[in-house]
Amino acid sequence: MTEAKALIFEMSNPGRRAYSLPESDVPDKEASEYLPEDMLRQTPADLPEVSELDLIRHYTELSRRNHGIDNGFYPLGSCTMKYNPKIHEDVARYLGFSNIHPYQPEESVQGALQLMYELQRDLAEITGMDRVTLQSAAGAQGEWTGLMMIKAYHESRGDTKRDKVIVPDSAHGTNPASATVAGFQAVTVKSNEEGLVSVASLKEAVGDDTAALMLTNPNTLGLFEREIKEIADIVHEAGGLIYYDGANANAILGQARPGDMGFDVVHLNLHKTFTTPHGGGGPGSGPVGVKDILAPFLPKPVVGKGSRGYYLDDDIPQSIGRIKAYHGNFGMLVRAYTYIRTMGPDGLRRVSEDAVLNANYLMKKLQPYFDVPYQQFCKHEFVLSGNRQKKLGVRTLDMAKRLLDFGVHPPTIYFPLIVDECMMIEPTETESKETLDRFVEGMIQIAREAEDCPEDVQEAPHHTMIKRLDEVTAARKPVLRWTKE
Amino acid sequence: MTFRYLPMTEEDRREMLSELGIESVEELFSDIPESVRFKDRLRVSEPLAEPSLVRHMGRLAGKNASFDRYTSFLGAGAYEHHIPSVVNHVISRSEFYTAYTPYQPEVSQGELQAIFEFQTMICELTGMDVANSSMYDGPTALSEAAGVAAAVSKRKKILVSRAVHPEARAILATQARGLGLGVVEIPCSAGVTDPEELASAADEGTAAVIVQSPNFFGNLEDLSRIEPIAHRHKGLLVVSSHPIALGLIKPPGEYGADIVVGDAQPMGIPVQFGGPHCGFFAVTRKLMRKVPGRIVGQTVDEDGVRGFVLTLQAREQHIRREKATSNICSNQALNALGAAVYMTALGKEGLQEVSRLNLNKAHYAQKRLTQIPGVEPVFEQPFFNEFAVKLSRPASEINKKLLREGMIGGYDLGRDYPELEGSMLLAVTEMRTKEEIEELARVLEGVL
Questions:
Q1: Which residue numbers delimit the Glycine cleavage system P-protein N-terminal domain (chain B) (predicted)?
Q2: Which entry of A110, A400, A465, B325 is 20 to 30 Å from A342 by CA?
């Protein structure tokens, strides 16, 4: 049995320290000299007291209990867990990028503004849009920003009854959630048996209350919406706009552009397609591209270029306003910019080719052993169903846990919701054929175990530092912080 | 051209295509209609090899006046503090930074435990019961707090002090348009929220009273006077706070705040042109199930060993979709980890010490600078590490002069507060030396 790792608080020992602060070169007075006694803290925050080596050993040990892309294969569908280049981490830490203030005079941050200006331009080119804002901190914030612009657009035309946003049933959960936060009602349309948006259902759903349709293309099943032109026409004819969720943009770089498909607004996840690290859940970055009709509503500020150099343009009279403090997650922009400069036009195109080839190869190799609900070429990801194994008493969750024993992070499971016992697999272009082949071997072994010795799968994982955790009790009797006994 | 991030060889490609029974990769894209295929070549710059790229990026970085070459007195929500060396070493461990959200707890215990510890530290700092795993930044956390207050109280009116960060108020205005909330800005008097104005605006339709302390001007708000006004009609009190100040000042939780938000940036996160920073969000136990974003909870595994999982997920978008408490998905986890390492490094004593250094240096600077003819204090309030001064010449002109002298001056308050035209907000953290303060005084004496 594994021992629990001590919490940093349990390692604390008064008198130890891991900090070094400057000596005070001004008179060192008690806080009460400057602040009223009743505004002062009586009980200090009970932060841990450890030595620097204790600190490093603690976090090093924690890192050993974590699986990242650098540890092994991470085919988590719709998350695009591709390699995060090391040079990005170096460059983002250059003092000229990391140690500058958002309110410095523009003439003192020309390099940063140039980088943002060029990134806006490149992302507009890649998506086929006219203008780009780099403000949003993540995909979900990008969605909300796009929807707020759509709202402002309709209102500017005196068209105030459009309160519905249509989302397919295969959409990411953030789509309907963002619609709600932007003040719309989310309406779900069913996919057809091919896994695509049903044009017939869409026709029934649209009307003069349609503000927008949100679509991921390729969708979360990894399938390209072939009838995209027709879909866009249906929505546009009804007076609505069409939103592109860029979570799956890794499939189409240099191959197809949302702007050419008829989309009016797009967000990209720089932490997916453009390799900025996921950081264990963030920070991300979710730039938003728009067609000219939405440009008047862009959030403030955007970066412009004038006779005196680059500047922050706040003069957007119909802007939806501010959506995030300062200038977006700049550190992430530096990384994405570096990536685009590394790959260039042909490299970006190759990214999507290889990502799509890897996904199709994996799907083909796994097809004899698992149910493949959608039998056609996929794009950068595909879904399997664990239905065949479920009949043997082995759930998709069990197979996911068993994969942990092979040093592989499992695929996204039970999403999209429209596939039973779903496994959504996205290998990305940065994985080699050998890695894919090893994964296939592991999956085949698990499929065999499901038939021959199901308990080996049901009781997995066997080799992780900790076994399956009791999530039900965690939610019923929440313990959300450490407390001193 | 070969690309070092793309391992597929020609041989691999041939084998894989043959496995699929096709001739070319092109066939895999045949489901994209011709009319929307991109047949051009993307007009982005040609690729750069690593040495050229390093040179190019170095040149871009070199065009910026960074704190290592310039002495900065600029704060206004983003602060230059010392970052212990250990912080960068920990967040550079790629087991942390190349991981996704910890959906598979068995292989994510490191991240989950670190965030559980972060949540605990934020609770300690703010005096609250429950904290989440982070928000995009302090200002967006403040808007989310307004959303929570409206949802809990089923009311639509938000009162926000004009002494709250102007960008936070601007984001709140955008958010309010989406959620259909009404925002009323409460005027200030003498550099703090006017309690009488606040009292007359608060009524039974008020979902929340939102204040910031230390406020945008650096002044401490009298929360003991504001709290009863917020609660009189059963609205919520939301306080935006500064984590380093909390080393010395009484935490909002002890005043009865319902939600405490702020930005953890001062704790180990570089200013980096304004982001990524790291919002924190802490509440009373009563509001636990209304919190936006991810929360880590403690549990046990099948053998009874303590472990951690993402919990209370019934609040979140991936489960609740349109009924979620917020649309937030990605947050600022790596920066929350950085802040946790900072708080661990500083510890119980260090946080008080750094807080005291800030207080002492800022007060020394304020006293020194306001002795200069042409520099007047704007307010007579208790303040932490930032203060406003009125200058006899325009702030933008002074800042240009300071830049030439190797200094980044303060924030021009006239940008957001017409009545404070000619006033500048100066931040003095532990990073500023007495010598640098003297240098600032010398330049000001020369131009005023």
A1: 4-444
A2: A110
